[in-house]
Amino acid sequence: MNAAKGQSTKLDAKLFDDVPVLRRKWQAALKPGETLPRYENVLLGSLGRLADHLVLLKCDNGAFAVSRTGRYAQNWLGDARWNIPMDALRPDCATVLSEAVSNAIANNRPYLAAAHCVRAGMVRTYDVLALPTFSRWGGTLVGAYVNERGTEFNLIDAIFCTTDDGVVSLSALRDPTGRPLDFQVVHHNQAAVKLLDVAEHSLLWQRLSNSDHLLCSQEVVGRLRAAVTNDQSDQFEIEDDNRSLRLGVSAFGNIVSLVISDVTSLKRRDASFRLLFDSNPMPMWAFDAETMDFVRVNDAAVQHYGYARETFLRMKVQEIWPKDEQVGYTRALRDAGDIYQSEHPWRHVKADGSEICVLTFGRRLIIEGREGYLVVVFDITERRKAEARIAHMALHDGLTNLANRALHRERLGDALENGNAAGKHVAVLCIDLDLFKNVNDSFGHAMGDHLLEQVADRLRSRVAGNNLAARLGGDEFAVILTDDISPNRASDFAAELIRSLSAPYEIDGNQVVIGASVGIALSPGDGTSSEELMRNADMALYRAKEDGRGTHRFFEREMDYQAQRRRELELDLRRAFADSEFELHYQPLVDIASDKISGFEALLRWRHPEKGMISPAEFIPLAEEIGLIAPLGEWVLRDACNEAVKWPSEIKVAVNLSPAQFRSLHLVQVVISALANSGLAPKRLELEITESVFLAETEANLAILHQLRELGVSISLDDFGTGYSSLSYLRSFPFDKIKIDRSFVKDLAIRSDCGAIVRAISGLGRSLNITTTAEGVETTEQLDWLRAEGCNEVQGFLFSAARPAAEVGQLLLRFGARASKAA
Ligand code: C2E
Ligand code: CA
Ligand code: CA
Prior knowledge:
Blueprint: H1 18-29, H2 39-43, E1 54-60, E2 63-69, H3 71-77, E3 84-85, H4 91-107, E4 111-119, E5 122-134, E6 140-154, H5 155-162, E7 166-174, E8 180-188, H6 190-196, H7 218-230, E9 233-239, E10 244-252, E11 255-262, H8 264-278, E12 284-288, E13 294-297, H9 299-305, H10 309-314, H11 326-335, E14 339-341, E15 346-349, E16 355-367, E17 370-379, H12 381-395, H13 405-422, E18 427-434, H14 436-443, H15 445-462, E19 468-473, E20 476-481, H16 487-502, E21 505-507, E22 510-512, E23 515-522, H17 530-546, E24 552-554, H18 557-578, E25 582-591, E26 596-608, E27 612-614, H19 616-625, H20 629-644, E28 652-656, H21 659-663, H22 667-678, E29 685-689, H23 698-710, E30 714-720, H24 727-732, E31 737-740, H25 742-746, H26 752-768, E32 771-774, H27 780-789, E33 793-794, E34 803-804, H28 808-815
Helix pairs in contact: 14-15, 20-22
């Protein structure tokens, strides 16, 4: 900003000393004991030229009036009269005189005031010193000394210089017909020089036609001419590369006054606002806060909402609100402050009638001269849908769209909470599909999936209201029945369900039949928490499957007891393996022809610290189930080989293999390693397997058997005659030995069919060159029969039960030469 340039007049410096001189004179005239000095002593005589500057004021009935004035003072007052009342004086003089006089009287002291007066367009500052005195003739007399302080300002210049706006005065030069032709700059301020970016000398007194700056353009000159011709004002904007100037033109006769304002930043702000608004990808609009009319809408809003711009601009905000929200939204908007942000999503209606879900951000401001709101809209409809989808997915099964385990647990928890509180029963049914695995294995997973979808449909059609059907995984489903269900009704429901699920399915032109087993648990008797109830329903399901499938069972406490025992056993078993509580006992196999021990079968024993010896029949199935059989079986193999290598070289060792061991990919490797580490010749190792090895993964298991046999190890088929007893197994693999199950041996003497079977197997063995071994031989009678039927080998308590490794030597001594019970 230009500093105001004061135009000071040089004055006699002595005058500045008059104020202290007068103060001293007043003080000197003050006599002790008096409050004011006498008039005569201060203001009469010896004042010399100072008398010219005096205004003498006399108190008349409480009001002051001017009684006499000096020549200088008359000039200042603009009035040469004596004896005039204060209110007849010029206001600027009266104001300062009143201030000085009243202060001086009130304090009984001289008082100095300053006066600013405008004289001929100049601002002048005066000192006014009021000297209070008392007169012998009565009353108070105040002498006011007036003098100009010595600085003055040109008011117009001050205004001109201090404004940032450029001011240029031009005089019009007319042609002979009187029309304005050209213009000459007759006055300008500093700001004009700056704004027009010209040197001062090329502006003042120059004609526009001879100059070269922004005002010389045809457009500006044209508008100036028009203003002069019509004696009018005009306002317009001009621009160069980087600035925008607004010109205000006023013509008075031949003089044109031009005010130039820099509106560059204003224009830029306007341009960036337009850019931000018009090309914003977010829908935006402005609406009138009072009438609710849309005042402006951007392209994105037009596109997003589907209303043509003209339509939009004729609408009111309420028209995009759904009918049922009018009251609430109006209130919310009325309560909105200068800046608002919707806390909850709002619903808006598009031109096609569809609803969207939006968040809005608004700001109150003046738009196109109207109080209103500028609003930005975020459409969160898709996000909302996605969130809902994700929420649904988190609680539903992708294939069947039934509730998943999580939702099932949650709903069961809720149902129980309500049921427990109201003393009502809640039933949970665990459903397992029978034979589903077969469908999956033989028809493929795609077909399995179709089947599960149809199962889900049937479940859904039977489960209504507050009840819930869920898929817990694989072919496991569950149903929650609320509504104070009785055991009878739960039972009927389960039976119906099984019937429905067991009806044939039509899938891709194939007819498929499966069945279902159901376990039921009822609150509160079978449990009050969802975990407990589910666990018990699951146990009941297990029982239903054990009891032959296609049926339903209720949970019973006994099941719980068994399950608990099983859990304890499992923990115990794992611990036992870690603590090396297992050992191998050996039972001799005796060759009938030579009456000599041909080998020993290694049989696993668990020496439990508290329960004593535990039979493998009790823990092998569990070890298989929990996956402990692989490490346990490996240990058996190594231990048996390590033991057998100490025996005479013609004595073999037989080791039992569980079908579960075939699932481990390392079985062959484990056998090779056991042989290598012990140094046992492969031909001395017999591996006993049961028919169940052929029930699943037949091809892979056969391959493993062949690999084992290639090692030189022999393979025996154990427990023959139980299980499926399919002779086809004998054809599918070249077994070295068949072990006839002891159930046939037991009844040899009493049941003729047992004898026939033993005879048949022995005959088959002979013709296929397979050794036949009879298990469980307890009597000489049985031994005689077996010998007669053509069996090659026997094993049983008649000779010895399985004994610890340390006793093998003794057994060999006893049965080394002649194996006979008669020993
Ligand atoms: P298995 O392979 O049929 O073993 C023969 C079973 O019959 C043994 O029972 C044995 O003690 C018993 N036994 C032998 N002679 C007679 C007899 O004259 N009369 C009667 N009543 N029984 C006799 P154990 O030792 O209790 O083994 C039971 C089953 O446990 C075995 O049946 C076998 O399938 C399994 N097993 C034993 N050890 C192992 C092993 O190390 N691994 C695997 N996978 N299974 C094993
Ligand atoms: Ca065996
Ligand atoms: Ca057996």
